[in-house]
Design goal:
8 strands, extended, two-stranded antiparallel ribbon, 14% strand
Length: 206
């Protein structure tokens, strides 16, 4: 079977600029036989099965707030919209949806829910589903790391205090709560952090 290859070149409508990778790609593009047949039969080139949503989490009173420079800084923190974050509204969703109380924050609010940025609330997906991901936190981040750990273990938390309550005892810090749960008895947190980071971090970062 004889295989043929062809290279197509187009005239430049604008003066060539050195280092313009986009123009270089357009000026001379190679299309293989397999790719050309794929285009001729109009096969799909890609398909996305799930949408990924990044779950936000923060320490009490340390959420990120976007505001206008014309607003009074002292009144911004007391605004109701500033207190509605993905995490705090997740606590409210756990109260609203009973089925969410059997899942962790990583898998709740209940499956098939998505964060609505306009209304700043969790709403049920009209179609499809999504995969939730928690932002990475290094063990050196202090309380922020110890806040993240229970979100992967504790089910149905409805407040920050609920996250720090272990077997009926309200602990003062999230680290103390993790110790009560037995998560910090050994170097397991470092092994877990390295195992998670190995999926995206480079060798230098590790």
């Amino acid at each position: 079977m004889l295989k043929r290859k062809a290279t197509y070149g187009s005239e430049q409508s604008q003066p060539y600029r050195e280092g313009d990778e986009i123009q270089e790609y357009l000026d001379c593009r190679y299309v293989s036989i397999v790719e050309s047949c794929w285009w001729i039969f109009e096969f799909s080139l890609q398909h996305q099965y799930f949408s990924i949503q990044k779950l936000q989490y923060h320490l009490p009173g340390e959420q990120l707030v976007v505001f206008s420079d014309k607003k009074d800084l002292f009144s911004i923190g007391n605004e109701l919209e500033a207190q509605k974050t993905m995490l705090t509204m997740g606590f409210e969703a756990n109260k609203k949806y009973p089925q969410a109380r059997h899942t962790t924050y990583l898998n709740s609010p209940p499956p098939q829910c998505v964060w609505n940025h306009s209304s700043r609330s969790w709403t049920v997906c009209q179609k499809g589903s999504s995969i939730d991901r928690l932002s990475f936190a290094h063990p050196n981040c202090g309380e922020r790391y110890y806040l993240r750990v229970p979100f992967t273990k504790i089910c149905g938390a409805t407040s920050f205090e609920d996250t720090r309550t272990i077997r009926g005892v309200l602990h003062l810090t999230f680290k103390s709560a993790c110790m009560a749960l037995g998560f910090l008895d050994d170097d397991g947190k470092w092994h877990a952090a390295l195992a998670e980071a190995s999926t995206w971090a480079s060798g230098v970062q590790l």
